[in-house]
Here is the input.
Amino acid sequence: MKKFLSFTLVLTIAHIVTYVVIGALAYELITKQFYMGETPTFIFMRTESEPLLWQHAMTWMLPGQALRGVLMALALLPFMKTLVDMGAVKRALVLASLYFVFSHLSAAGPTTSNIEGFIYFRPEFFNTQIFLLTQPEIIIQALGLGFCFSLLMNVKGIRRQVNPAGKQDAG
Here is the structure.
């Protein structure tokens, strides 16, 4: 149980930090145009232009992301030892790939930047420009999550705690 809790804590912290930092930067630099302005595309989202609705998003953002981190750790539990045994770079890239593909590009819920959105969203909500401009945020967040998690696994003996044998492949 202690191994899983350490694994879960590291994954959750890495997820929250990268989600907040990369999300805030991407919002300011790339995607704010889709949420705000005269003709926002994401009219179905809560934005700061409506303070009462925005308060809900701000109240639940961190608890919601913590829950996502725990759920991701639960889903990865059968693969925990394999992930921990990997070399740091390989572990980071594997986790980043899993996060990008399953949490974003192939997610079952349609968004303006995934395959389901391409299939089901009306043209006014899904177009090539929106799709392409929203990819960097998730790619960078996925890589950030992978590398942050991988680095944190090596801090303060967490990796040894999760895998006492300490075996690691060269990748």
The chain has one domain: 2-162.
